[in-house]
Specification:
Elements (H helix, E strand, L loop, with lengths): L1 E5 L2 E4 L4 E8 L8 E6 L6 E6 L6 E3 L7 E6 L4 E6 L8 E8 L9 H6 L4 E2 L5 E6 L1
Parallel strand pairs: 2-11
Antiparallel strand pairs: 1-3, 3-8, 4-5, 4-9, 5-6, 7-8, 9-10, 9-11
Amino acid sequence: VQLQASGGGLVQAGASLRLSCAAAGRTFSSHSMGWFRQAPGSERELVAGIDWSGGSTWYVDSVKGRFTISRDNAKNTMSLQMDSLKPEDTAVYYCAADRTAGRVFTSAQTMARHIGDFGPWGQGTQVTVSS
């Protein structure tokens, strides 16, 4: 079972990137999923989440209005459209799924408290935003 994130790169502030997450080995169509990031010297943090149906999404305040999470259960994929990138968005980005099927979180804060329930963690994709 693997979740592979891709699409990262080096861009200037204000640019856009689209990250993709592909699942191999099983389907996560019944699981909430999320995008997380980890900057050097920092803990891994939630960026955005989406419920199993795609009907509910959650974002941390720092990316609201700039990032958009989506999923395609038919293709077993998830995406993160990142616009108006800032240097503080620089990090390794990971995708992961909630190990509990069918759970829907009420907010990004609630989802973030359950980061330990997410996995599997792949290698991530590096996003670097220069000023």
